[in-house]
């Protein structure tokens, strides 16, 4: 087992491949050319790194016409990448989170396909406080009142449970160092908030804009003031 872990960590630990994996955390698919720009390297070099990540089943590639698009092969990969951010020593972590260039990312962002950052953590804590979800052995469960809550949002709990992925799990937020809601339930909640215009995506960034409508909803429903 330690040999296999060593192989995966050696793949992730390369600076170019680290940049590739971090760039893909916005849950978009990118071409090799786009990823080469992100990593500031040549097309030939990026191709070699992408092939290694695909062979290790960390990435998958899909062809559309003349182009190939790369994305994560499974949700466990971005969860692992985000979790590694929590291993950064406290002194370095403080420098990163105190950097004003990171303010929008720290405030509200996507972590692959669910909500993260300060807003994501506060929302998860509110769901726990209001007994909409409960914590049980490294997972979240939806309570009876939670079933009604998600039904009002037209989020089908039973359909989400049938997906071939974790239903509702805690994901350690690298900037807040607290948990936010991940899994198919976390993804569905973000999708619903986007469709209701509570939050909006921003171009070329993982940062998420919390709208005035979203702020009003969070305060009126959960007394979250952000």
From TrEMBL:
It comes from the Bacteria. SUPFAM superfamilies: Winged helix' DNA-binding domain. Residues 1-92 form the HTH arsR-type domain. NCBIfam families: HTH_metalloreg. This is Transcriptional regulator. It comes from Chryseobacterium rhizosphaerae. The lineage of its organism: Bacteria, Pseudomonadati, Bacteroidota, Flavobacteriia, Flavobacteriales.
